[in-house]
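for the record, two folds in this file. i put them one after another cuz i was lazy. first one right below, seq on top, structure tokens after. the second one comes after a little note so u can tell where it starts
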Amino acid sequence: MNSYVLKHKAQGEDPFAGVMPVEITHFHPNGTPGYTPVVRAWASWTDDALHIRMRAYETDIRATRTRTNQSVWNDSCMEFFLNAAPEAGEKYINIEINALGTMLLGYGDDETCVYQDIDAADFDIHPCLELTNPKGYWQLTYTVPFSQLKRWFPGFQAQSGAKLRANFYKCGDETGVPHFGSWNQVDPTKPGRFHCHATFGELVLG
């Protein structure tokens, strides 16, 4: 299990300055053979939120879903699954966002995911496309407010040393090169691919 220590940042400070990324290096065998785009994720925390940045180096981007909770996983999509209170059980939220910044948020477990009634504006999503050179990429930057997390994890306490369970993913089911990548390796025998709490890594609030 991979572990990632999140730096604590002061309010108003650049949340990603000096933060080292993790990389998505495990690609599911059901994807396009040989297609393993470079994908990185950065995370930090302030007293009121998690701060997430993800970047995918791919130039053939599909982005068609424009409404909250549509099937964005079929587009070029980056995802963050999080259990903020693992001591209370194995339920988690799955945040899935395409290259347009369209967001899906579900809550549940490996067997059941219920889409949540959310206002995506609360997550301050900023998509960015930089495709002007052969090493082009697209990027997402957003926050996960602790006020929102407590809707699903009322026992969560934002304090140094807190241990969360999570995984970062990259997918694109209906792109020209379908692919399914993860930070922590998923079970290749599981049909749900990413929905497997047992394969989540560990995030530690530093």
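(here's the note) second protein begins now
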Amino acid sequence: MEKAVSNYDLQVDIAKGIFLKYDQQLLIRKFSLAADQQFIYLNYINTPCRISRKDGGVEEYIENRWQECRSFGTVMTVYDLLCYHQGDTVPALSGQWCAVGAFVVTGVTDTETFTKKYAAVFDGHAEELKSTCEKMGGIIQPKMAGADVTCRIPITPFFPVLLQFWAGDEEFPPKLMLLWDRNTDRFLHFETTFYLQGDLLERLKCHVTDLLKGDINWKKYGIQEGSDE
């Protein structure tokens, strides 16, 4: 009996075909990517990735070997960051941070409901969160708005986000927030910000949880142990 294919898997396969329609040489030049005849390479949240130039499949270097990535959030974010902008050069970052709601023309965007479960995981573990962010290539920033953790995390070498975390106390629950460069809408579709947010926070949760258990294996995530890049 054949295993049912999920809608997410179908969308990933469709996206692979769409990626192959893009000018790969342009993408390589535009984003200064390493490449050979078979693959295009880039770092995604400090994990080595490569895209097949033949079938568009995305692979991650995990546990010392290349493995196919079927994560909908990862694959769709990688494709969008490379293909959304139509110019010949990388769009400029503004250097100014804003909430994702700034990119919505109408309506209200509530991301706090989604981030609550992650804030609860990190509550009481700000130092572990800091350490994990740095391991994932993040750079701790000066304190902003009273946050216990403020970290600039490169999703790719050309696109960062800003993570802020406030520990809970007697009056307020813990809070987690992602801020985006004001030019984010030049890099990816609005809906992709939610794929990226979920992917990043899920990776952080897994790393911090393993760290608290005392059995963290950075190679499991494609991050070399002892590296703070």
